[in-house]
């Protein structure tokens, strides 16, 4: 399904988003995360989206995500300060947030992951599309990624993805490392007690995706089979990759990310 709303034509929204983005425009990883004064409308949007997501998470989210989210305890009734969530996450799994003004280039984003840093935006999606956003926003970054980054297992997998992306040199290899990230940590599903559950951040931060992901074409998780699959981030996903268990997710992606290099990824593409 295509996006219903183009936020770039809403000047007031764009101004507010730019205002928040400017706060983190020139920060180094060690600078403190800026404090943002959120408006009552933004708190209201956060509350509404979090309530709708929480209802769906109870039946659609993987158990490990729910346990990790309980540990992190992100406030649902107001937009939290990113620095507060970051401190709590760091004390649980060692991962922390770095404020980012917008989507970060893949190499830079992954460089952060290798150092246990996750780039997070601080602005919210357009209120006209509360249940889906093409670009990452703070709901996606915190509710989707942050919640599972309080799990030691997932903190390790995110780090391994970052190390793999930092290790490879060719564009083809970097994009493939990113593709494996996309189909697992962004859009991954897993079978739990005979049911399909989501653990990927893109699914878990979008009511629209959560309402559709059980009807999507499902393929078994296998790194080599991702070579021929195209993906777009501007629509709901049409193909998802499902693992038999969270252990299989871990084994599959950690084996790939901890050993891949330009040659092994090139061999996969030209097999
Ligand atoms: Fe994401």
UniProtKB/TrEMBL annotation:
<protein>
    <submittedName>
        <fullName>Phenylalanine 4-monooxygenase</fullName>
    </submittedName>
</protein>
<dbReference type="InterPro" id="IPR036329">
    <property type="entry name" value="Aro-AA_hydroxylase_C_sf"/>
</dbReference>
<keyword id="KW-0408">Iron</keyword>
<dbReference type="InterPro" id="IPR019774">
    <property type="entry name" value="Aromatic-AA_hydroxylase_C"/>
</dbReference>
<dbReference type="InterPro" id="IPR036951">
    <property type="entry name" value="ArAA_hydroxylase_sf"/>
</dbReference>
<comment type="similarity">
    <text>Belongs to the biopterin-dependent aromatic amino acid hydroxylase family.</text>
</comment>
<dbReference type="Pfam" id="PF00351">
    <property type="entry name" value="Biopterin_H"/>
</dbReference>
<dbReference type="InterPro" id="IPR001273">
    <property type="entry name" value="ArAA_hydroxylase"/>
</dbReference>
<keyword id="KW-0503">Monooxygenase</keyword>
<feature type="domain" description="Biopterin-dependent aromatic amino acid hydroxylase family profile">
    <location>
        <begin position="1"/>
        <end position="271"/>
    </location>
</feature>
<keyword id="KW-0479">Metal-binding</keyword>
<keyword id="KW-0560">Oxidoreductase</keyword>
């Amino acid at each position: 399904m295509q996006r219903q709303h183009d936020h770039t034509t809403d000047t007031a929204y764009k101004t507010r988003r730019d205002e928040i983005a400017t706060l983190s425009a020139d920060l180094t990883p060690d600078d403190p995360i800026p404090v943002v004064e959120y408006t009552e409308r933004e708190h209201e949007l956060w509350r509404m989206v979090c309530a709708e997501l929480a209802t769906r998470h109870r039946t659609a989210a993987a158990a490990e995500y729910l346990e990790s989210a309980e540990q992190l305890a992100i406030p649902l009734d107001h937009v939290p300060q990113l620095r507060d969530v970051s401190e709590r996450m760091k004390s649980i799994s060692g991962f922390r947030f770095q404020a980012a003004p917008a989507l970060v280039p893949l190499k830079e984003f992954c460089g952060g992951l290798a150092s246990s840093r996750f780039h997070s935006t601080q602005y919210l999606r357009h209120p006209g599309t509360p249940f889906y956003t093409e670009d990452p926003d703070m709901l996606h970054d915190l509710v989707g990624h942050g919640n599972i980054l309080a799990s030691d297992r997932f903190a390790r997998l995110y780090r391994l993805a970052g190390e793999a992306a930092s290790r490879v040199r060719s564009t083809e290899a970097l994009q493939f490392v990113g593709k494996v990230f996309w189909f697992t940590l962004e859009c991954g599903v897993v079978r739990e007690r005979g049911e399909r559950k989501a653990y990927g951040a893109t699914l878990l931060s979008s009511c629209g995706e959560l309402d559709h992901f059980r009807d999507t074409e499902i393929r078994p998780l296998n790194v080599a089979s991702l070579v021929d699959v195209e993906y777009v981030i501007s629509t709901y996903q049409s193909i998802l990759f499902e693992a038999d268990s969270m252990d299989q997710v871990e084994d599959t992606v950690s084996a790939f990310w901890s050993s891949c290099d330009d040659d092994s990824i090139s061999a996969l593409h030209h097999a």
